[in-house]
Specification:
With about 280 residues, this protein is an alpha+beta fold. Helix content is about 45%, strand content about 20%. It contains seven helices and ten strands.
Length: about 280
């Protein structure tokens, strides 16, 4: 495998942003107080404890903004090792910039210069990029092994599991305006995928799995499918009919479910992996 192919492998999408921001902020605050890097040990300031804690607070706020706002611009379905490394370096850049500005504002006798900013950023990236890359690779390898092993077990379960015998009659999916309706037998409903302000309802028709577009949300569709035990939310963008699962593949992000009578795959995000396992084991 060449380097390009390796960097394009799937990687778990960053989550638990509040917890991560809090831990990193606490760590940076302690680091700045104990070690006083970047020549800060030669500078005396009033309220040294509060000054050091300020670095932690600034770092917490920067990472929180990145995690809760900026990260929403990206799709977890296309997150890769390369993107994770770039995201980590971006976070380091933001931390370096914010903490440099904080230092300048708190210590009035310092001169704000572009050269000083560049040096500060280079120090931050050099110190942080190597351990970040190392940790990314370790996590990718660990998650890949775990999910592949777990997927093999789930595959065996699906081969032995009988289809769920559910309530008779049609499933009725309605549009946001309450007018457009789609009546479909649950036994023909393979999966639903969110697509912006629409959902793609993949159903079996004439031996093929084909989509029907409705202006609705995945949350609304999930509510309309309550009571149908084989319909399972497995991702923020997918609802799967477990009777249509043909195979399970594991990668660093989680699982990908192969769909019968189709070449499509449905993604399972990490927050739903335990639920998938519970449903399979019950079957």
């Amino acid at each position: 495998m060449n380097l390009k192919s390796f960097l394009q492998q799937p990687y778990p999408f960053p989550d638990r942003q509040i917890k991560v921001a809090a831990l990193v902020g606490l760590g940076i605050g302690l680091l700045m107080f104990l070690l006083k890097p970047f020549g800060l040990s030669n500078i005396s300031v009033k309220h040294d404890h509060l000054f050091s804690a300020g670095y932690g607070l600034v770092s917490f706020l920067v990472l929180l903004f990145n995690g809760l706002v900026v990260l929403r611009l990206f799709s977890d379905l296309r997150w890769t090792i390369f993107r994770q490394i770039c995201w980590s370096c971006w976070s380091l850049f933001c931390l370096g910039l914010a903490n440099y500005v904080y230092t300048f504002l708190c210590i009035g006798r310092l001169n704000f210069t572009m050269a000083g900013l560049v040096i500060f950023q280079l120090y931050t990236l050099i110190i942080g990029s190597i351990p970040v890359t190392f940790l990314v690779l370790i996590r990718q390898n660990r998650m890949l092994r775990l999910n592949r092993k777990s997927a093999e077990v789930l595959n065996d379960h699906f081969l032995l599991t009988e289809p769920v015998r559910d309530l008779p009659g049609d499933v009725v999916l309605t549009a946001e305006n309450g007018k457009t309706e789609l009546n479909i037998q649950v036994s023909d409903l393979a999966f639903i995928e969110s697509d912006g302000n629409y959902i793609q309802v993949y159903r079996r028709k004439d031996g093929l799995i084909a989509p029907v577009t409705i202006r609705s949300s995945i949350v609304k569709a999930e509510a309309e499918l309550l009571g149908y035990n084989q319909m399972l939310r497995c991702h923020r963008a997918f609802i799967i009919n477990t009777d249509f699962i043909e195979s399970v593949k594991g990668n660093a992000q989680g699982y990908r479910l192969g769909i019968k009578e189709s070449n499509r795959e449905v993604y399972v995000s990490r927050q739903y992996t335990k639920l998938i396992k519970q449903v399979v084991n019950k079957g």
